[in-house]
Design goal:
Layout: E1 3-4, E2 7-8, H1 13-25, H2 28-47, H3 54-63, H4 79-93, H5 98-109, H6 122-136, H7 145-154, H8 161-173, H9 185-192, H10 201-206
Antiparallel strand pairs: 1-2
Helix pairs in contact: 1-3, 2-3, 2-6, 3-5, 3-6, 4-5, 5-6, 8-9
């Protein structure tokens, strides 16, 4: 089992089944991204001396983007909610305590929502922080060159990861553009599709049925 700066994937039956399930479901790009999210988040938690459940963090990191995969092409939910629901179903099938299930659900559901996860349970914060680090380099300088190289060497970034992750987001959301309202996910659709029109909250308010 790969250990990176004292962090390793949990050696448990649950973690093994999660790994296999995600490996069988996601592309290499998303699978390795999700694994790096776990390591970034766990290392950040260690740096900040946070007390967190390493297994719950792993499950949430691995499931966080499953809503972008082919199996959810007909979904009308936000992709984050699809991922959260999938993780919840998986954990309930393994008789995991409901409080832990809800931590994982919330971590996945809020992983693209800034400004809130850092005020919640560490597992919730660390999934969002790990995803932000891997996709946008948020917190990049809080890791040493050696730490970054070790994680990327063990779980490589695709040759064109930046465009690859944009394409994965777009493919997972283009059939449900209304679910991106109020999130930065609509940036992806606007970038990839010049005909996409963002919903405008001010226009929605002004055109609501209220007289005043």
């Amino acid at each position: 089992m790969t250990e990176i700066f004292g962090i390793k994937i949990p050696d448990s039956k649950l973690a093994g089944e999660v790994t296999q399930f995600i490996r069988d479901t996601e592309s290499d790009l998303l699978f390795f991204h999700s694994t790096r999210v776990f390591f970034w988040g766990a290392l950040m938690g260690k740096q900040k001396n946070l007390k967190f459940d390493i297994e719950l963090l792993y499950v949430a990191a691995m499931f966080h983007d499953i809503g972008l995969t082919e199996g959810y092409r007909d979904s009308e939910l936000r992709f984050e909610v699809d991922g959260a629901n999938a993780a919840r179903n998986f954990l309930r099938a393994h008789a995991i305590p409901e409080l832990d299930v809800e931590k994982v659900w919330t971590a996945i559901a809020l992983h693209t929502t800034p400004g809130i996860p850092e005020h919640m349970h560490p597992e919730i914060f660390l999934v969002q922080a790990g995803a932000g680090m891997d996709v946008a380099g948020r917190g990049y300088d809080s890791f040493s060159d050696h730490q970054r190289q070790a994680i990327v060497s063990a779980y490589p970034r695709a040759a064109d990861f930046k465009n690859g992750i944009i394409n994965a987001f777009h493919d997972g959301m283009k059939h449900r553009p209304h679910t991106t309202f109020g999130t930065f996910n609509d940036d992806i659709l606007a970038f990839k599709d010049p005909t996409f029109h963002r919903a405008d909250l001010c226009s929605i308010i002004l055109h609501s049925p209220w007289d005043q």
